[in-house]
Amino acid sequence: MTKVNLGILGGGQLGSLLAIAAKKLEIKTIIFCNDKDAPAKHYCDDFIFGDYKDLKCIEEFVNKVDLVTFEFENIPFETLDQINKQKKVYPKPEINKVIQNRLLEKNFINNLNIKTTSYKSIKSKIEIESNKNLIPGLLKTCTLGYDGKGQFKIDSINDLKDLKLETNNEFILEKFIDLKKEISIILTRFKKNSYEIYEPIENVHKDQILKTSKIPAEINDKLKTLSKEWAVSISESLDYIGTLCVEFFIDKKDNLYVNEIAPRVHNSGHLTINSHNVSQFENHLRAVCQFEKINTEKMFNAEMINLIGDDILEYRDKKLKDNEFFFDYKKKSIKPKRKMGHLTRIIK
Ligand code: ADP
Ligand code: MG
Which of 7, 133, 160, 165 is 20 to 30 A from residue 192's alpha carbon, by CA? Predict the structure, then answer.
């Protein structure tokens, strides 16, 4: 079998975990990243440092690979589109164009008759005032937000006094939901009606950053079925290839809402490395490289804890129990709110 040369855009922890999974499948990974100290540098076979908009540098990358995937959704569409003209990009770039923008993303989801929180496109402060029904709410930038960045909580009209909106940015105002729980569904789509779906994962966020994930999620069977159905419907409608994550909100009355879609492997799926026979990373690689689809089964229940900022320090020299798996992302420096590593505990 000739080796596949897989290009991966992005070299963070997701790129690292993809590169580690690739070794088992004898896939050669070539990572392109705009951070010369990217964590994935330690794990990939070849590394190219450059700006995502530098098409000359991208050309060097394209020449080295057979196909391309990505570990985060905010790569400029033009770059993905340019690459796709020469080598296949999975999932396809048009998907990113929709998901990169919270407004287009929510419109798309609602058009599938899938519920999201109520929302409105916002360009100025006056428009917030005329949408009082969405307050308390969250004002979110339409593009480039992650881990709660680019979000402002608006509890009352009074909060608008101190708010300065950058005029060149677009926003959405989203109704705040009194959350009972958050869950995610991770699935890998190989082709039409061909999937591997993981069971719902229950997630807890702190300061809008994922803190813990666990399976099984403590939710009723109706929500388990509906969340899976919605995730399948989204991936089918996008003609998606690879691993995708759908994040959901559940309110106090057990109503289900899609929060957002991540067109990539996802932090809440890290536990699949230890809980399942095939991880979200291996499944992603199998789907994009058109390898055999393996029946994915749970071996253990599990929980994962994100190690954020200084949390990492005590784990670096901690003696682990035999059901604990520690991953250090080997980031150059520790910063508050930065995801530094994670610990997965399997429950035997
Ligand atoms: P990001 O792209 O930063 O992950 P999200 O929209 O997923 O942005 O928001 C991050 C977290 O903030 C969510 O997982 C949730 O805990 C909280 N959050 C976001 N929007 C709402 C909302 N409308 N109501 C309640 N909580 C929310
Ligand atoms: Mg999110």
Answer: 7
Contact indicator for 284, 243 with CB cutoff of 8 Å: yes
Of the listed ligands, the closest to the CA of 209 is: 1
Cβ of residue 205 lying under 6 Å from some atom of ligand 1: yes
Spans of the chain below 70 pLDDT: 1-2
Percentage of residues in the chain having pLDDT higher than 90: 90
CATH code, domain carrying 130: 3.30.1490.20
- Ligand 1, atom 22, lies closest to the CA of 176
Looking at the structure, do residues 164 and 222 belong to the same domain, yes or no?
Answer: no
Q: Is 22 in the pocket of ligand 1 (CB under 6 A)?
A: no
Question: Does the C-beta of 176 come closer than 6 Å to ligand 1?
Answer: yes
Tens-digit pLDDT profile for residues 133-164: 999 999 999 998 887 788 899 999 888 888 88
Encode pLDDT of 83-102 as tens digits.
999 999 999 999 999 999 99
Residue 161 pLDDT:
83
| Cis ω before 136 (30° cut-off from 0) | yes
Cβ–Cβ < 8 Å for 33, 39: no
How many Cβ atoms are within 10 Å of 82's Cβ, its own excluded? 16
Listed residues 175, 191, 219: the one ending a domain? 175
Residue 102 is encoded by which pair of tokens? 């919270």
Q: Tell me how far apart the alpha carbons of residues 236 and 223 are, in angstroms, rounded to a whole number.
A: 20
Beta strands in the chain (DSSP E): 4-9, 27-33, 46-49, 67-70, 88-89, 119-122, 137-141, 151-154, 171-175, 179-191, 194-197, 201-206, 209-215, 242-251, 256-262, 301-308, 324-328, 339-347
Q: What is the pTM of this model?
A: 0.96
User: Are 199 and 215 in contact, with CB atoms under 8 Å apart?
Assistant: yes
Q: How high is the pLDDT of residue 158?
A: 87
CB contact set of 2 (below 8 Å; sequence gap of 6+): none
Q: Which domain holds residue 128?
A: 118-175
